[in-house]
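Reviewers of the previous submission asked for a worked example of the structure-prediction workflow described in the proposal, so we include one complete record here. The input consisted solely of the amino acid sequence. No template or homolog information was supplied to the procedure at any stage.
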Amino acid sequence: MEHIYIALVDTPGLFAALIRRFLKQKYIHVVISMDEKLEEAYSFGRRNPQIPFFAGFERENKNKILQAFPTADYMVCELTCSRQQKEKIQEQLRKDYIRRWHYHYAVPGLPFIVCGIPFYFKNQYTCSSYIARILNENHIRISKKHFSLVTPKDFYLYSDKKVIFEGSLKEFVRLADHAVMSEKAVGTGNRREPEKNDQRLRQRVVAAYGG
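From that input alone, the workflow returned the following structure tokens.
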């Protein structure tokens, strides 16, 4: 079995506060990642973390996000999948990233979400609807809702997930960077060591935050 990762994000800001009030929960943004350290992670969100007015499909950079939102909190969750599912999801994410300037945040769809009316605007998604669609197409169903109506709260309530980290982004970056440095120190003599370091990262995170 393989794993993919979902990060639920809490960031400050007026727009975030409005979404938080609508969802009635802390986490208002969703990221999909191919690895537990969020090195290859994607979402529909700000093209530049510092500029709130331009949003679309982007590859997330946790260090840039930390610079823009030093008080951000993350919940990182692990989802089990097959090797074939992971490869297809990763292939689609990389294809969409190449065409990222064709994709935009579905601002016109927000009233439909509030009213519970399914919708589709070509190449326009919210962070959660895009991930819900790509997971649905690979037989991982987060919610019974139409993908356009899936919100971060549905990911939060999804029962088939394993929380491997919950806490500040600052602490997560520190733990992840430590694991990367450990891998670099190993060299090429033992190919199994990076896998062991990933396990250590997970063990440290669970020990620190429970799970």
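Residues 188-194, 207-211 have pLDDT under 50 and may be disordered. We consider this example representative of the routine output the project will generate in years two and three.
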